[in-house]
Amino acid sequence: MSDHAVLLEEVTRTYGKGGTEVAALRQVSVAFPRGTFTAVMGPSGSGKSTLLQCSSGLDRPDSGAVRIAGQDVTRLREKELAVLRRDQVGVIFQAFNLVPSLTAWQNVILPSRLARRRPDPSRVRELLHRVGLEGRERHRPAQLSGGQQQRVAIARALLGRPEVLFADEPTGALDRSTGHEVLALLREAVDAFGQTVVMVTHDPQAAARADSVLFLTDGQIVDVLDRPSADQIGMRLGGRR
Ligand SMILES: Nc1ncnc2c1ncn2[C@@H]1O[C@H](COP(=O)(O)OP(=O)(O)OP(=O)(O)O)[C@@H](O)[C@H]1O
């Protein structure tokens, strides 16, 4: 088995055709080692979301290879890709994406139910406990704070023990202290449980929790900082947010 949860080799993704063609990713090669936390930063339009979508198998590159848990997703058929994504990829979003009519517990187990699996109740309980939601299992999203909703989404993403967890601006809708708690949870998933996390963020404070920070510009990785401070990240961004 490779040490990399996800490996991109010369990935190019172009949108549009002719005069309106935009190269969102240009020959990007990057490895996300197992058990590490990577932040992805860069100006608006630099290709961060495209990188996340190609790395998670949601989008197919025009050329290059994307390996998740050693399997090249660009060579899989739709059904095989759906299974790989279901079993190996967890995703959380800025907007939480919970089902409003379901309780916290029901939201966490929904993907397993859709996959016709019966999740072990003791594992669901343990996960909800780990993300600090003990006693809130029967609450619906509207009865939970934003930070609590994001914790439900994290528990949902981790339930299937995915190879990698992708987070797209996970703290973007949260106040600073709630955001810190969510980041601490992602950090713990990496440190205590060996989870691999890849997170897109505009926030240098959030990125400073990662092991390494990738900087994208015009569809290319132009810099990588290991364990940078928020100040170093801010300086690298040139004061831009
Ligand atoms: N579906 C699409 N059709 C056409 N162009 C697209 C599409 N998705 C992205 N692009 C273009 O590709 C480039 C990269 O977009 P992407 O969303 O990956 O950037 P980003 O860094 O995530 O930006 P932001 O920080 O604003 O979310 C941009 O120029 C964007 O306009």
Automatic annotation (TrEMBL):
<dbReference type="GO" id="GO:0005886">
    <property type="term" value="C:plasma membrane"/>
</dbReference>
<keyword id="KW-0067">ATP-binding</keyword>
<protein>
    <submittedName>
        <fullName>Putative ABC transport system ATP-binding protein</fullName>
    </submittedName>
</protein>
<dbReference type="InterPro" id="IPR003593">
    <property type="entry name" value="AAA+_ATPase"/>
</dbReference>
<dbReference type="InterPro" id="IPR017911">
    <property type="entry name" value="MacB-like_ATP-bd"/>
</dbReference>
<dbReference type="GO" id="GO:0022857">
    <property type="term" value="F:transmembrane transporter activity"/>
</dbReference>
<keyword id="KW-0547">Nucleotide-binding</keyword>
<keyword id="KW-0813">Transport</keyword>
<dbReference type="Pfam" id="PF00005">
    <property type="entry name" value="ABC_tran"/>
</dbReference>
<feature type="domain" description="ABC transporter">
    <location>
        <begin position="6"/>
        <end position="237"/>
    </location>
</feature>
<dbReference type="GO" id="GO:0016887">
    <property type="term" value="F:ATP hydrolysis activity"/>
</dbReference>
<dbReference type="InterPro" id="IPR027417">
    <property type="entry name" value="P-loop_NTPase"/>
</dbReference>
<dbReference type="GO" id="GO:0098796">
    <property type="term" value="C:membrane protein complex"/>
</dbReference>
<dbReference type="InterPro" id="IPR017871">
    <property type="entry name" value="ABC_transporter-like_CS"/>
</dbReference>
<dbReference type="GO" id="GO:0005524">
    <property type="term" value="F:ATP binding"/>
</dbReference>
<dbReference type="InterPro" id="IPR003439">
    <property type="entry name" value="ABC_transporter-like_ATP-bd"/>
</dbReference>
<dbReference type="InterPro" id="IPR015854">
    <property type="entry name" value="ABC_transpr_LolD-like"/>
</dbReference>
